[in-house]
Write a structure and sequence with these properties.
Length: 100
């Protein structure tokens, strides 16, 4: 009975056969992508003001959503400060919630 358990089919439903090789390589094909550096750490900006709408607008795309860390490249502490500054600027109508 243990011999049949060791020999499982690789194809079909629920199996892990087939396209497993692509994911083992990380899903990326060639090239080297450089890690983004936090803009606030690089420029030594400690305080992110909600009044600076021009700075905050760079982290809010056309749809009006706050960009995540993996896209904007900010570190965790500055992402939290950026998030609160954007939300405060939205309440004062310095930055729109949603664009048309």
């Amino acid at each position: 009975m243990s011999d049949t358990m060791d020999q499982r089919p690789t194809g079909g439903r629920g199996g892990r056969g087939g396209k497993r090789d692509d994911k083992a390589q990380g899903g990326r094909r060639g090239g080297f992508r450089r890690r983004r550096v936090c803009k606030f750490c690089a420029e030594h900006i400690e305080h992110i003001s909600y009044k600076d709408a021009r700075l905050l607008a760079g982290f809010v795309p056309e749809r009006g959503k706050i960009q995540p860390r993996r896209i904007s490249g900010t570190c965790a502490t500055h992402q939290r400060k950026l998030q609160t500054a954007i939300k405060r600027a939205r309440q004062l109508a310095l930055i729109p919630y949603v664009t048309d």
